[in-house]
Amino acid sequence: MTPNPTIFTPLLIASLAVFAWGCWKRLSLISLGKPENRFDNIGARVGEMLMYAFGQKRVLAKPFGINHFIIFWSFIILLVANIEFMLHGVFPWISLTKLPDGILLPLLLLLDIASLLALAAVAVAAVRRLISPPYPEARTIEAFFILSLIGILMLAYFGINAAKISRMQDGALVIARTWMPVSSVFAGMFAPAAGATVYSLSWWAHAFALLAFMCYLPHSKHMHILTAIPNCFFRRLEKPNTVPREEFAVGNEFGVSRVDQYSWKDLLDSFSCTECGRCQKVCPASITGKPLNPRAVVHDIKVNLLENASMLKKGEQPGIPLIGAQGEGSVSEESIWGCTTCGACMEACPVFIEQMPKIIQLRRNLVESEASFPEELLNLFENMEGRSNPWGIAPSERTKWCSQLDVKPFDKNTTEYLFYVGCAGSFDSRNKHVSVAMAQLLDRAGVSWGILGKDEKCCGDSVRRLGNEYVFDKMARENVEIFRERGVRKVITQCPHCFSTLKNDYRQYGLELEVIHHSELLRNLVQDGYLKLNGISGDLGAMVFHDSCYLGRHNDVYDAPREVLQAATGTAPKEIGRNRNNAFCCGAGGGRMWMEEHSGERINLTRVKEALEEKPDTICVACPYCLTMFEDGLKDVNADGVKVLDVAEVMAEAALR
Amino acid sequence: MLIVACIKQVPDTTQVQIDPVTNTLIRDGIPFIVNPYDTHALEEALRLKDRFGCRVAAISMGPPNAEATLKKALALGVDHAILLSDRVFGGADTLATSNVLSAAIRKLHSDVDEVGLVLCGKQTIDGDTAQVGPGIASRLGYQQLTLVDRIVDMNFSGKIIRVSRKLEGRHEIVEAPLPAMLTVVRELNRPRYPKVPMRLAAADATVEVWNNQVLKLDEQKIGLKGSPTWVSKIFSPDRAVGEILGDGNSDPEGTAEMLIEKLLAKDMLPI
Ligand SMILES: Cc1cc2nc3c(=O)[nH]c(=O)nc-3n(C[C@H](O)[C@H](O)[C@H](O)COP(=O)(O)OP(=O)(O)OC[C@H]3O[C@@H](n4cnc5c(N)ncnc54)[C@H](O)[C@@H]3O)c2cc1C
Ligand code: SF4
Ligand code: SF4
Prior knowledge:
The complex is a heterodimer of chains A (657) and B (271).
Chain A: H1 5-27, H2 42-54, H3 65-90, H4 101-131, H5 141-166, H6 170-179, H7 181-187, H8 195-216, H9 224-233, H10 264-272, H11 278-282, H12 284-287, H13 294-313, H14 333-338, H15 344-348, H16 355-369, H17 376-387, E1 417-420, H18 422-427, H19 429-444, E2 449-450, H20 461-465, H21 469-486, E3 490-493, H22 496-505, E4 514-517, H23 518-527, E5 543-545, H24 559-569, E6 574-575, H25 603-612, E7 618-621, H26 624-636, E8 643-646, H27 647-655
Parallel strand pairs in A: 1-2, 1-3, 3-4, 5-6, 5-7, 7-8
Helix pairs in contact in A: 1-8, 2-9, 3-4, 4-5, 5-7, 5-8, 6-7, 9-10, 10-13, 19-27, 23-24, 24-27, 25-26
Chain B: E1 2-6, E2 9-11, E3 17-18, E4 25-26, E5 32-34, H1 36-52, E6 55-61, H2 67-76, E7 80-84, H3 94-111, E8 115-121, H4 132-140, E9 143-155, E10 160-167, E11 170-177, E12 180-184, H5 196-204, E13 208-210, H6 212-215, H7 252-265
Helix pairs in contact in B: 2-5, 3-4
The structure holds flavin-adenine dinucleotide and iron/sulfur cluster (SF4) (2 copies).
């Protein structure tokens, strides 16, 4: 049976209809989401889309990324062949062969090679899924089904061309062998007499594979073929290191407990997930055996949306709750509380899905609308609201750390920098040493600085990441008010959480501060000659440096602390296995500092063990939470000989002797 | 049936210092909180509301700014929040305070609904007398059950309550007819956290204020005039200087043993 428009045309129309209906049915659900402006700065968006969707920059960053790159580009190139195929099937007179040779022949070569590469890539992907899948659940029937469809498409493409070549002679054959080398090899595999049979078999195999792929696509994870490109276009152009504000008015809803309370972009995210599993492979919660899996969270949002769509459209209550039910389509409370907001998932995701803000939205619902959260947090919330610090220590004790020093209050007329000490630096006995070291270094370098003293309040980082936006909002307003009143413009922080909150979160309140992390300031002071180093700091031995998530991944400060250590000790610190933007969280972010870890291995232990593989004598950090987590972890593995020091303490050893 | 929770606004005493010269409390800039024991009384009232569907009123005697305390109660879910505030109530000791509070409870009983239970904290963290609850009970003729750490059983229709009282080294289960006044200890429950929609509603809600024109009490029985106790002096006792024994760094085991011996000698460790 040769290609037959009377049979193919209705099949094509039906498939197109199924495809369009499938796409519409799913993608129209995106409009159920809340409005969010992702249409600003179109130029930059196009650039991002070109680099990450078409350039596949993030995809290529991991092993097997090249495989996907090949499949992606083959698909784009073969789009020409497939469109021609469908048109030709309906209107047999339409054919690429009508093109002038100067265009046709290179195009045929390109299609031939693209098909071969795609075939090889598909085979590699299939074998990988058999032998060592990216994650165990990736070994699905669906994955193999789709891979075989693509394989059939490629083989059939060769079959069609091979059949045509088998009928060629002389000059035409020579040309075909030059411009369709792969198809020519296939042509040598059967007798020319079988050409007609091969042609019609291949043609119909191609037709069915193509139409089946089309019908199936919208119902599978391969939907990402259509959504990943716009998802890169609509990505958050700034780092997703914060969450949007909430409006506190009577009648408003807080956080997300129904999918339609997410923004349309969150819903688009859920349709864009390629289920590559890269996020779960870097997630400290997933890795250490907690129930949280960022891929599953994104997947559950999609499933929930699909299952509840008809009810949501009618404005009815959804059948499957988004939080707390068993099975697909619902995220367990335990998962929601597992996130350290380390941002590793978002750094790894090839299509810029923003998992962390979605989790915080769920926390907001639990805290603000349900008052349901792990019981350890009750004290934290009350202490933060009542005394503006996590421990509930009397605010009058905020200046105890500097009782032996001559520290001046900040005064906008006479001081340049506000040293925002932070709660850990003010109250935590170990971290007070870091504050003292910082104060002495600032004085030694002749920096003009002052503190707010008893009037300093907590920045609110933990409560915001824990979803207690109501309390955060109160704290942020108070702080913004104080900063404005006092005329603060430049702020030094020694805590990456204060750093990020003052720098990024308070911008949402219209406060633009010049916030500098102490590692950056110390680096500048050395570079500019204000801090004279009289020698090398003492017996630190072999050093490693641990990147704090809120300094590194969330704010791209990687080099400053390393340069401080290099300057102070004369040698660059050694790197821990996972470092810089791949660094593994200490376990304290996202308010996890104040919570118990009930399942799996403790995150700080995992990280401490990783650091110890480098056989360090000193582990250097640039964050008070990391300092606590490492000291605790070292005690647990009885590595008492190993010290943990903040970069400021290392610098103080070198500069203050 | 109505349950009344008595809640008092107190200065956050962990932040209060005593002026060494005048021997008075330095209250400037000290934030106020709900007396911690009273948050447990309020929580238990709300739990009974959740269970039996009864109504809850929170009452507080104090200056106008004690309204904040009652707004917190509204945010947690009480149905009525009443501030008892009048200059003539000022300077009250426990006797006068009990007079005002019991008058308010009587009024709630006649105006709103039959009062079945009054819940008070065990004591306040500023006055610390633990007298007001019992004072209310005796004025109203209610049964009084102090130091309650668990409501074992509650039967509104049969008008019976059975509670566990936390005493030194033992518990006592006591049954009493309603109406009753309970003073509660912190082990009773874990207070809930307010939900944001309720906080917002509470912020807009008005707290009812009852002054003496409403309560119409004899001025000789309230406020300073109705208070037979006088505070003659407040002072911080000098803290005995401690003594460092042993050396935890060089000999942790020996030091720990020494500590245990000393505690045993003073009968401060359960054996
Ligand atoms: C040394 C001292 C000095 C004082 N000086 C002054 C003063 O100068 N001016 C002044 O106005 N007062 C003053 N008082 C306060 C006043 O005498 C008592 O605080 C008040 O009578 C309540 O007693 P209490 O705090 O010991 O409560 P407790 O008997 O310990 O309280 C038990 C429970 O009764 C309830 N309760 C108590 N008071 C109230 C209330 N006001 N509203 C609602 N429920 C309540 C609560 O449930 C509380 O948990 C002083 C008290 C003391 C001890
Ligand atoms: S932010 Fe970190 S902890 Fe949270 S889901 Fe992502 S990778 Fe996991
Ligand atoms: S969320 Fe991103 S990283 Fe995670 S599985 Fe989906 S596409 Fe991959």
